[in-house]
């Protein structure tokens, strides 16, 4: 199944520096129902040295979800490093 | 159901627009919060020139709406508006304006404070700090984890 990943802030910059301007929103081909908890390791293999803040959160389809979430085809997964709006 | 206005825009913020968006005949008070870019000097990077805001716009809107719904469950809101600026914001300029209208002033202050505090904790917007000698994402200065990385549970 295919899912879309979106990266932000310095994580997006790291991906673009490694792999080009669109690398901050890669489409990934993953096993069906993969637990979200397995995704960080896959991303670190794709983007070696990706800086990963300890309190980074994960969102699916624009909502925060727990790491036990199982991915579905077409999901949009966002890696959310510590936010700094306001 | 109270009204909620949200916008993300590179245009300069206009507090009067947020106030008029929440003005209601039954309001006894409108609390207004303006977040502005603070002048700072980094020991090696020099003075801060501006901040550069980026968002995950689709989720920023959803998450902000969720915070508004939670606030509406706690206080008798008549209307609220949250306008956040994107792109470069010079020192001294506002990056966010929040306006909240309620029948009585205490609720307006409390709900306004809740909205800015929660927004700063969960809404996916990031700033890049541009100093005279270099620029950096604020998220870069958070503690980092070595792999393998256990994903965090989401905020309540």
Question: Care to describe what's here?
Answer:
The complex is a heterodimer of chains A (86) and B (156). Chain A is built from 2 helices and 5 strands, in the order βαβαβββ. With 86 residues, chain A is α+β, with helices and mostly antiparallel strands. Chain A has a 5-stranded mixed beta sheet with strand order 2-1-5-3-4, with no helix packed on it. In chain A, a hairpin with a 2-residue loop joins β3 (57-60) and β4 (63-64). The longest helix of chain A is centred in the first third of the chain and has 11 residues, at 9-19. Chain A starts with a strand and ends in a 6-residue tail after the last strand. The mean pLDDT of chain A is 96. With 156 residues, chain B is of the alpha+beta class. Helices cover 28% and strands 37% of the residues of chain B. Chain B has helices spanning 15-22, 57-74, 105-122, and strands at residues 3-9, 29-36, 41-42, 46-55, 79-85, 87-90, 94-102, 125-131, 135-137. In chain B, strands 3, 4, 6, 8 and 9 form a 5-stranded antiparallel beta sheet that branches. In chain B, α2 (57-74) runs antiparallel to α3. Chain B is globular, with a radius of gyration of 17 Å. The two termini of chain B are 23 Å apart. The relative contact order of chain B is 0.25. The interface between A and B is large, with 35 and 42 residues.
């Amino acid at each position: 199944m295919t899912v879309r990943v979106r990266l932000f802030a310095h994580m997006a910059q790291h991906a673009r520096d490694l792999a080009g301007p669109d690398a901050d929103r890669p489409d990934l081909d993953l096993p069906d129902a993969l637990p979200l908890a397995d995704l960080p390791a896959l991303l670190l293999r794709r983007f070696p040295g990706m800086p990963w803040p300890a309190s980074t959160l994960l969102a699916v389809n624009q909502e925060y979800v727990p790491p036990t979430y199982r991915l579905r085809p077409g999901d949009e997964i966002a890696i959310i490093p510590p936010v700094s709006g306001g | 159901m109270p009204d909620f206005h949200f916008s993300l825009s590179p245009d300069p913020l206009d507090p009067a627009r947020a106030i008029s968006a929440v003005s209601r005949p039954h309001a006894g008070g409108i609390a207004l919060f303006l977040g502005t870019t603070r002048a700072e000097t980094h020991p090696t990077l020099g003075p801060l020139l501006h901040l550069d805001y980026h968002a995950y716009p689709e989720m920023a809107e959803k998450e902000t709406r969720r915070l508004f719904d939670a606030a509406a469950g706690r206080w008798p809101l008549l209307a609220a508006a949250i306008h956040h600026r994107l792109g470069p914001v010079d020192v001294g300029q506002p990056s966010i304006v929040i306006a909240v209208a309620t029948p009585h002033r205490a609720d307006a202050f409390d709900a306004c404070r809740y909205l800015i505090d929660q927004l700063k904790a969960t809404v996916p917007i990031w700033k890049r700090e541009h100093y005279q000698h270099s620029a950096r994402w604020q998220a870069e200065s958070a503690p980092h984890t070595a792999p393998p990385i256990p994903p965090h549970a989401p905020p309540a």
